[in-house]
Amino acid sequence: MSAKPRNLLFILSDEHNRDISGCYGHPFVKTPNIDRLAAQGTRFTSGYCNSPICVPSRAALATGKYGHETGCWDNAHPFTGAQRSWHAALREKAVDVTSIGKLHYRSEEDDNGFTQSILPVHVIGGKGDLKGLFRKDTSLKKDGSGLAKGAGVGTSDYWRYDTSITQASKEWLAERAKSNNEEPFVLFVSLVLPHFPLIAEEEYYDLYKDLDLETLSQGLTAPATDHPTIRRMAEYLNYNDHFDAASKAVAMRCYFAMVTRLDDMIGELLAELETSGLSDTTDVIYTSDHGECLGNREFWGKSNMYEESAGIPMILAGHNIPRGAVVDTPVSLIDIAPTVADVTGRDVGGEGYRGKSLIALANGQDPGRAVFSEYHATGANTGMFMLRKGAWKYVYYVDAPCQLFDLRSDPQELTDLSADPAFADVRKTLDAELRAICDPEAVNARAFADQARTVEINGGRDKVLQEKELAFTPAPTT
């Protein structure tokens, strides 16, 4: 742990594709504040969420454990506060740990472990996406037309919500500075952009309005996959069928604009640290809960193990953190819990966590390290399990073909090597390492059983299917 306890400003966004940031090599997106933070600290090139969908990803972040350990499988099995979290542990150690913004837990009626939660949003009705539990039903198909039809210039509730979150966070930091309280704090600022709906204010949209589809699509031109699980998911989510070239260009411009708006808000938070005199005593983490496919492989949203979906930005800056460093060691959101312990100098029950402090990883490459992600949520007719180690990404699907990619020679994941005899030993080794983390078949069966029970608890199939379908969790009234 750090020799002297420090404060932490932890900034989380929603659905930020790792590659759509200047510091990660994007050729034109405007992210000067994220880029500056990376220059002042350490940027991890291989950051991953532990499940590429909001609710289970955020549960893994809170608990430092995988979804198969907590039972937070999908968007209808949220964190409830009953599972041990790093924020609850910090609060017990008299650390002020405040959240501002989206949490996506079950309810504010639960004790979620924070000293206070400002402007929180949780799953709808405390239940979340029950319709997403019918994962094997091939008769069901979502109406994905709203993503394309809704994209364009304007102001969304999410845009306004994030503006309120940013303002509340700046006010919190200013008040904290005035208090002269020398005990460490953690301020968890959880923004929603660039999560869809893909709506951007004109000022930001105009930054990208003259870019054509070919330019906008750089790095996002992989063809549709022929993997049966992913193909079935794309058909179920039914997003891409509603896009033509013109609407796709509008949607992409909006996404880039939303990323730039996100970057501006991050800049406001960092400026407030300086203004309030807290920057010298406060470390900063920026990351996201998952990525966004943005039409790559004719897929929109997240929910798969390709880099654009499971990959996330991960940037750490502050005391004892190398400046301008780039670390290739794979990291994931379960590494946040031990990092928070390291920053604040508080024991938060690290023996139960799967991760490792990002500060330690920033100060020493670990080429043999592996990270793990899993998916048991909407659209997936079977469980997905991913292991990233070194150059390799191995994805195991229960009762479906596996995938193996060499990300160093094939960063776009265009060539699946899983059936190539030359890589049989690599696949076997990675499969054994994945199975040391969990038994995929047993976990898959348990996830389906839990999901079936949840459907019955909520009145059964017919009742659940009658409920109104919402494309995303609405923002609270601010």
What are the SSEs and their pairings?
Blueprint lengths: L6 E7 L18 H9 L1 E7 L5 H10 L3 H4 L15 H7 L3 E7 L13 E6 L23 H6 L1 E2 L3 H23 L5 E6 L8 E2 L1 H4 L7 H4 L11 H10 L7 H31 L6 E7 L18 H4 E7 L7 E3 L3 E2 L3 H9 L13 H5 L7 E6 L8 E6 L2 E6 L2 E7 L17 H14 L2 H18 L3 H6 L12
Parallel strand pairs: 1-6, 1-8, 2-10, 2-11, 3-4, 3-6, 5-7
Antiparallel strand pairs: 2-9, 8-9, 12-13, 13-14, 14-15
Polypeptide structure, described:
Residues 6-345 form the Sulfatase N-terminal domain. This is Sulfatase-like hydrolase/transferase. Pfam families: Sulfatase (PF00884). Keywords: Hydrolase. GO terms for molecular function: arylsulfatase activity; glucuronate-2-sulfatase activity. By secondary structure, the chain is α/β, with parallel strands linked by helices. The protein has one domain: Alkaline Phosphatase, subunit A. The protein contains 16 helices and 15 strands. Strands 1, 2, 3, 4, 6, 8, 9, 10 and 11 form a nine-stranded mixed sheet that branches. Strands 12-13-14-15 form a four-stranded antiparallel sheet, with helices on one face. Strand 14 and strand 15 form a beta hairpin. Helix 6 packs parallel to helix 10. The longest helix is centred in the middle third of the chain and has 31 residues, at 245-275. It starts with 6 loop residues before the first strand and ends in a 12-residue tail after the last helix. The mean pLDDT is 96.
